[in-house]
Amino acid sequence: MCVRALITEDGHLSDDELESMMDTNPDGFGVSWFNNQGTISTRKSMDKKEFSRIVADVQLATNKPVLVHCRIATHGGVCLANVHPFNVDNLTVFAHNGVIDCVEVDPEGRISDTREFRDTWLKHLNPSWLDNSKLQDSMGEIIGNSKLVFLTSNPRLADDYYIINEYQGEWEHDETIWFSNLWHRRTQVHHQYFDGGWDSYPIGMQ
Q: By Cβ atoms counted within 10 A, which residue in 96, 103, 120, 126 is the most buried?
């Protein structure tokens, strides 16, 4: 199970929150944001200090949504190639939290379930599905206890970000940051696998 933060225009991810995300999910870090040209840039790193600097610079440079992902490997090797966010196309990126069971896992263990899902499903869908609430709900059912966040500069879409299975995460900081789970909190956290997905909560809370 990984952790993801969608930082909206009025949000700011603190250094402590990012450090906790990286400490509990240390297998690679990625961030996507809107650059000065209005398109999406992505940076990835395997180094905590480097990634902390990248996120700090990104938050200073943009007043649009930012997508941060910290990975813990469940399928696929620990390498930059399996670090989120991933491009769906030239205008849209996405990050995933959970385990996707509707794809065949690479038998050699190199490619993550998220990359398989992107190549098997997402690349073949018309981007307009993101503006269709029924198709969003259907996608939520397909991925079960997983969560997806999309960041897009596609001018044909109504919004610049979309969350699939949003209710499974948490809006915090006056609803300016959406977290996929609780790994950003500086507390001891229990994680549990059930019904094809992971959940997490501070010990003492269920």
A: 96
Residue type, 158: A
Name the strand (E) or helix (H) holding 90.
Answer: none
Say what the pTM is.
Answer: 0.86
Cβ atoms of 180 and 147 within 8 Å: the answer is yes
178: its two tokens? 């959406």
DSSP 1-28: --EEEEE-TT----HHHHHHHHHHS-S-
Torsion 160-163-164-167 (CA) sign: negative
Q: CA-to-CA distance for 22 and 157, rounded, in angstroms?
A: 32
Q: What is the DSSP string of 116-175?
A: HHHHHTGGGS-GGGGG-HHHHHHHHHHHTT-EEEEEE--TTSS-SEEEETGGGSEEETTT
Convert the pLDDT of each residue in 133-169 to its tens digit: 999 999 999 988 889 999 999 999 999 999 999 999 9
The whole-angstrom separation of Cα 77 and Cα 52 is: 23
What is the Cα–Cα distance from 170 to 46, expressed in whole angstroms?
26
- Strand order of the sheet with strand 170-172? 40-45, 29-34, 66-70, 3-7, 177-179, 170-172
> Are the C-beta atoms of 34 and 153 separated by less than 8 Å?
yes
DSSP 24-67: HS-S-EEEEEE-TTSSEEEEEES-HHHHHHHHHHHHHH-SS-EE
